[in-house]
Amino acid sequence: MERTLVMIKPDGVERNLIGKVINFFEEKNLRVVALKKVRLSKKQAQAFYVVHKDRSFYESLTDYMSSGPVVAMVLEGENAIQKVREIMGATDPKEAKEGTIRKLFGLDKEKNTVHGSDSPESAQKEIPFFFSDYELLSAE
Ligand code: CMP
To answer: Quick one: which of 13, 25, 38, 10 has its CA closest to 131?
Structure first.
């Protein structure tokens, strides 16, 4: 069993896609361990995406991610990190495969509807960013 952090980005929340996005994951046998809707401040978005701080898109990405509410969740399942990445599709919706969330709902590279941890190391940092031990234990 593995856990990963998924975030429904402001474009997904704004277009009322929360249920549809979660359904993609549940249909593939991933379980929601913890879930919350929050509005990130600019500083929080900068902290969450700090690995990208030297990239040209960092400023725009963190403006966007703090522009409206997001839904953060921890999903659990076998090979959850890789599975979520496959269900989401490529970062750029134009390159995402048919049947993926980003192909269906993504608007562009930035407004690509969902984020998922890209490795076990990222998941280990991203899960506690949103959820306390207490919130995670309550799912067991
Ligand atoms: P995400 O999985 O949230 O992780 C970093 C985000 O940066 C990525 O999805 C994209 O939405 C965003 N982004 C914007 N521009 C780029 C780019 N040129 N390359 C990669 N990611 C980008």
So the answer is: 38
Cα 23 to ligand 1 centre (Å): 23
Q: Are 113 and 102 within 8 A, CB to CB? A: yes
DSSP codes of every residue in 24-53: HHHHTT-EEEEEEEE---HHHHHHHTGGGT
Domain ranges of the chain: 2-135
Nearest ligand 1 atom, CA 116: 2
For the structural domain made of 2-135, what CATH number should be given?
3.30.70.141
pLDDT means per 10 residues in the chain (140 residues)?
97 98 98 97 98 98 98 97 98 98 98 98 98 84
**Which ligand 1 atom minimizes the distance to the CA of 49?**
5
pTM of the model as a whole: 0.96
Q: Identify the H or E element spanning 122.
A: helix 120-130
